[in-house]
Amino acid sequence: MAEEKNRLVVVASRGTADGLYPALILATTAVAQGKEAAVYFTFGGMKLLTKQLAQTINPSVDLGVSREQLEQLLSKGGMPSLLDMLKMAKQNGVKIYACSPTMSLFGLRKEDLVDVVDDIIGASTFLEIASDPKTLALFI
Amino acid sequence: MAMVKPVLTVDVKGEMCPMPVLKTRQAIQQVKVGEVIEVVATDPASQPDLESWARKTGNRIVLVETVGSNPVVYRFLIERVK
Fold first, then answer.
1. Element housing B67 (H / E)
2. How far is CA A72 from the centre of its chain?
3. Could you give the angle at which helices B19-30 and B46-57 cross, rounded to 10 degrees?
4. Which of A35, A39, A46, B11 could be bridged to A30 by S-S, CB 3.0 to 4.6 A?
5. Cβ density class B5-26: b for 16+ within 10 Å, e for less
6. Regarding beta strands B73-79 and B60-67, do their DSSP bridges make them parallel or antiparallel, or are they unpaired?
7. Strand ranges (DSSP E) for chain A?
8. pLDDT in tens, B41-64
9. Cβ of B18 and A32 within 8 Å?
10. Looking at the domain assignment, is residue A23 inside a domain?
11. Distance, CA of A106 to CA of A103 (rounded, Å)
12. Matching Gene3D superfamilies, A to Z (chain A) (predicted)?
């Protein structure tokens, strides 16, 4: 009998660097701790999964630094770019889910997405995943 | 125990969370059960984070020490348990 693992699911809803890094950091760290992990990208967060937009993500105004400044600070701390962080998460076993309603809203097709997406799911599937008693769900 | 010789060193000095934990995990997967790796880090969160990681994954921190100042370097010896 397979032992059921603890799982972390993160909803990444913001299309800013400071919205997306924490989601990827937490999910990747969860896998390193032996948990299962998934990130559900929705609304602004879907920018990172969209080929044409993935390289254009800026920090939020709230963070108060420019994109160039943030990139410098992050690389000083050995932190990969957002897209590399996404690929690293995927390689480490984080499941990557794209939000189907967001795709409908913005007319995105599967071919428009970065090649890391495990599945395109909607609210119902997400809630089923998040409702498992061994799952911790966070909204970022 | 102080004589334990690490088979691998992970140098994450200057790197921020989550890199110390991620690179420690990669390293521990490269060594055999019972072998010890050394991790050197400057991130002040590396101690609580690696202790938590060890508890969750069942690996054992054999030694934690701080070396020097400005910046303080945290040195860990971690045994792969499973």
1. strand B60-67
2. 22
3. 40
4. A35
5. ebeeebebeebbbbbbbbbbbe
6. antiparallel
7. 7-12, 36-41, 95-99, 119-121, 135-139
8. 999 999 999 999 999 999 999 999
9. yes
10. yes
11. 5
12. DsrEFH-like (3.40.1260.10)
- Judged by a CB distance cut-off of 8 A, whether residue A78 touches chain B is yes
Q: Is the peptide bond between B71 and the residue preceding it cis, with omega within 30 degrees of 0?
A: yes
What's the pTM value of the predicted model, to 2 decimals?
0.89
Please determine, for residue B38, whether its predicted confidence score (pLDDT) is greater than 80: yes
Of B16, B17, B33, B72, which is the active-site residue? Answer: B17
Is residue B80 flagged as an active site residue? no
Q: What is the DSSP letter of B77?
A: E
**Chain A residues near residue B15 by CB distance under 8 angstroms:** 77-79
A77 to B56: CB separation less than 8 angstroms, yes or no: no
Which residue ranges in chain A fall short of pLDDT 70? 1-3
Beta bridge partners of B60: B79
CATH code where residue A63 lies: 3.40.1260.10
Give the domain extent around A90.
Answer: 7-139
What residue ranges define each of the domains in chain B, with the CATH number in brackets? Answer: 8-79 (3.30.110.40)
Tokens 């990139």 belong to A71
Of B12, B15, B21, the CB nearest to A29: B21
A1 domain residue, yes or no:
no
